[in-house]
Amino acid sequence: MTRPRFLPDNFTLTLISVVILASFLPASGQVAVGFGWLTNIAIALLFFLHGAKLSRESIIAGAGHWRLHLLVFSLTFILFPLIGLALKPLLSPLIGNDLYMGMLYLCALPATVQSAIAFTSLARGNVPAAICSAAASSLFGIFLTPLLVTLLLDVHGDGGSTIDAILKISVQLLLPFVAGQIARRWVGNWVARNKTWLKFVDQGSILLVVYGAFSEAVIEGIWHQIPLWELAGLVVVCCIVLALVLLASTVLGKAFGFSQEDRITILFCGSKKSLATGVPMAQVLFAGSTLGVLILPLMLFHQIQLMVCAVLAQRYANRTETVAEMMGQVDP
Q1: Tens of pLDDT along 39-72?
Q2: 323 part of a folded domain
Q3: H-assigned helices in 154-289
Q4: In terms of residue numbers, what domain contains 277?
């Protein structure tokens, strides 16, 4: 039986199912404590595998393209937050203060790794540069995101200082990542051979965090706090923010004279926000019932960016290859 085209992918459907499950059967008491421990273990394993998968050769291959990386970083960690702040007069009344805080958190996050590289490859962009840029964004985001969260949301990670938040993230996320890099020489080939089913570690850790976050939020009455019109407004807001960043990525890529392949990389690496990094990081930075509300914009934005970028990547993939592209020359 052919899958209907209007249906989202399986992970999106599972994510929606988890939210529904948490809405009707939220974890509480000792069950919630157990889920918390299981989630922390899954997140550590997730970042260990990210470290084991990341090839040093891929980093070296794309590291020299500093102008491209600088522009991608500026889009990810400067333009996004500026858009979030500039649109406050529109966003705050439309979606309410809590969801607006979630949008600001989204704007502070690093870019995705897997989907940015996948879309760049599909669109025939500069894949080595995409690998380096996306991986570096994810790594530096461990330090930059807590700083931006402190500036934008005045949040210090469980009531501590920004340094405490960075240290906590370093222990829970960076340390497993570094351990994965060290262990790569022994487990790298095994991880590469089993990457098809290891993706379920990525997805499983996200689902655990989402279930735990929404369980606590439901117990505190999240669906009574957020009206339906605010949820509809949130979809519109996510579309507006994504459209502005896509436009800026395209205009700046041309203005700075990048080649077509580089402009594709800038577009797909500079417009993404990572659900895989953002959800675990929120687990560290925020506590209590606010977590479910804060990651809701990220969950919606993630699905919207995937659908929009899939269409864009296919359009680029179907373009006629020019002589300059075939010879690796820079477009004027």
Answers
A1: 778 878 877 887 787 666 655 655 667 889 899 9
A2: no
A3: 162-169, 175-193, 195-219, 222-225, 228-255, 260-270, 275-285
A4: 13-318
Residue in the structure block whose two tokens are 């009455």: 221
- Counting Cβ atoms within 10 Å, is residue 56 exposed (0-12), middle (13-18) or buried (19+)? exposed
Distance, in Å, from the CA atom of 98 to the CA atom of 75, rounded to the nearest integer, reads 24
pLDDT, tens digit (0-9, with 9 covering 90-100), for 239-275: 999 999 999 999 999 999 999 999 999 999 999 898 8
Residue 324 in any domain: the answer is no
Q: Domain of 45: which CATH number?
A: 1.20.1530.20
Q: Is residue 332 part of a domain?
A: no
Our count of domains for the chain comes to: 1
Q: What is the DSSP string of 120-153?
A: HHHTT--HHHHHHHHHHHHHHHHHHHHHHHHHHH
Alpha carbon distance 301, 308 (integer Å):
10
> pLDDT digit string (tens) for 162-205?
566 566 666 776 788 788 888 988 888 888 888 777 767 767 77
Q: Does any domain span residue 284?
A: yes
SS3 of residue 304 by DSSP: helix
| CA-only gyration radius of the chain, Å | 20
